[in-house]
Amino acid sequence: MTMVKALTDAALAERIFTAVADASSDAPGVSRESYGAGETRALEIIAEIAAENGLTCETDAYGNLWMRLPEDSRREPPVVIGSHLDSVPHGGNFDGLAGVVAAMMVLIRTRPYYDDAPPLRALALRGEESAWYGKAYIGSLALLGKLPPNALDLHHRNGTGTLGEAMSHIGIDTHAIRAGHAVLEPKDISAYLELHIEQGPVMVARNWPITVVTGIRGNVRHNTVHCIGEAGHSGAVPRWLRKDAVLAMAELLSRMDEHWRVLLQMGMDLVMTSGICTTATDSHAVSVIPGDIRFSLEIRSQDAATMERFYDLIRQECRAIETSRGVSFAFDQRIDTAPATMDTGWITRLEAAAHRLSLPLESIPSGAGHDAAVFANAGIPSAMVFVRNDHGSHNPFEAMEIADFLKGVDLLAEAVHVPG
Amino acid sequence: MTMVKALTDAALAERIFTAVADASSDAPGVSRESYGAGETRALEIIAEIAAENGLTCETDAYGNLWMRLPEDSRREPPVVIGSHLDSVPHGGNFDGLAGVVAAMMVLIRTRPYYDDAPPLRALALRGEESAWYGKAYIGSLALLGKLPPNALDLHHRNGTGTLGEAMSHIGIDTHAIRAGHAVLEPKDISAYLELHIEQGPVMVARNWPITVVTGIRGNVRHNTVHCIGEAGHSGAVPRWLRKDAVLAMAELLSRMDEHWRVLLQMGMDLVMTSGICTTATDSHAVSVIPGDIRFSLEIRSQDAATMERFYDLIRQECRAIETSRGVSFAFDQRIDTAPATMDTGWITRLEAAAHRLSLPLESIPSGAGHDAAVFANAGIPSAMVFVRNDHGSHNPFEAMEIADFLKGVDLLAEAVHVPG
What we know:
- Chain A is of the alpha+beta class.
- Helix content of chain A is 37%, strand content 20%.
- The longest helix of chain A is centred in the N-terminal third of the chain and has 22 residues.
């Protein structure tokens, strides 16, 4: 009986993944544009298959799809399980979609004993990816009345229409969004749960099929730090008279890299990245001491205080290097994204469920942002389950095994069914 | 009497500098193109003023101007004092020209007692700057039959004609150059002396009006070192799974910077520069771990063994970082320029002359290349005197005081007059 169910689940999952991939294929990979055709087609397919499986579907005022058991007429705030249906251009099929499919399957799976569990809803959100309009979590922010009105004026990555125009085109009331009208108040739902593929390599490296997410890292960014030194003849200026911007940046990054290593050993959660780094292309030369360099800085942590302390350390090291090397560091506007805390009650429930199912369950921070962070920061108890995935996300080479995915579905079904 | 002579010398020097500057003005600065109009005009002005002052002028087969005292009929190999007349585009007036004016003035100054000194020639070379055809020391290399034949096929920086065409246009026999015919064999001259402005900031910083050059630094270059790591999500990949190319480069440069500092303390002559440094502009992003970076590397020293040892150290550190960080460093073709040793006999003569004149004379390496390196590497005893100059060279802001320049002329005249 268990064997038959597993086969059926795998077949259903495969069928949905294949149908949505086929409908949004854009070689290489898939393209499901936020509030665009591919996302809309994915919503339609999900709704069709949900209906075939006896679920009731409803689209809210902002275009998101809600699914429920028609026989469950309870009015208390439900547990919402969901994720998003959009993808980046030429992205992978599982980022977002896996969480929506999992939500449907938990509803179907728990149907026979639904009234032992809290009321459940499956939610397919639109507009999570920032790749199309430069803004992430559009769907969940609008849902909670928290989308900044000027986001509607953001232009499509191709420079064509705006987000607001794309929304209006599919019948969404953008005046309501602009006015901050919420579809959902935080008190209307009791929890938000999301399954997602891991976007990093840890679970493959550690051989962990599923994990529970401890928190979603926030970040502090400077798109451009400008280190200004002094250009000079590479042969004729001795070390003591140089103001070499590249060596100053190298010293800063090396010092911070070492501090980072030590802080990790102390048990802190932290990552640091300088992804962009360029000397001045109109004047740099092999035989000229670099007079300036521009580089980006990003730090992420689950803990706001850790980020703040590490950020202060960066600024202190800059001042020390300014003094020792005669350079200056000019920082552009600091951009902050707050970390999100996952609900300890739901983490405990997921761990207890894993124990009952004899599934090993390690925990891991989420380095990438998710709609779950929006719900958590609105005060809604939120939790996430990650599924092992090779090759990262946002590319056509995402590799999630269906067997791992079904372990995630098993875990969510068990956790919502038997309260912790 | 001394006072009158000094005034006269200053007036003559000012007159020549002004006449050549006016004739090659190209705001901002001056342009005296190698084998082009500005350089030719400068040669004509120098020849006119030399003739007015009783010197005999002769142009050799490759367009360089030679000046001598008509009464000096001695046939033994002369001491040649010279420099070049070309400039970079929109360059300064003193780089090169100062050495030619000094050579003329030494001839004029020593005239009353010329037969107490060795035979002397003043030489105004063409084609020293690489800015026009991408090749430096054209004039001195051709003179010694050492210009690589394919240099004649190099295109002008504007992409128009070739070096060979420019030479032919002013009557130079390029077939002879291509065949490696020397105007001058090393045995034909007994020494080559050159006065030049300092192109670095050391003499201004140290308050040294003139210095004797200990040697001319050679260099080892890689135009591009490609550090290859692995791109990844800046939030989702922990430190232990990263292959961050920027942090790997930062560690390499920081390690080498520290080794450099220590080697200087040990008394070695060395400079190191990474003037170009860029992540991949088509794929880098603030939130992507940099998967690669390209950077240039240049080391210079008066001592070939020091360069070789430091170069080996770079390659060793790369291997260590490859192992510890999972990146790889790919080096493009290594480009070598040999250092040149200045003649200890002539350095001693210059030091003795300075002592007799009560001029303080510190010594300094030349970080930039000079025609003197070509003569020295052909086996001709060579020496250089640097004159204090602010703001570096190759720009309109060169700032040499005539008083400092005349100290250099005094020193050369004393050194050639009274043998060491």
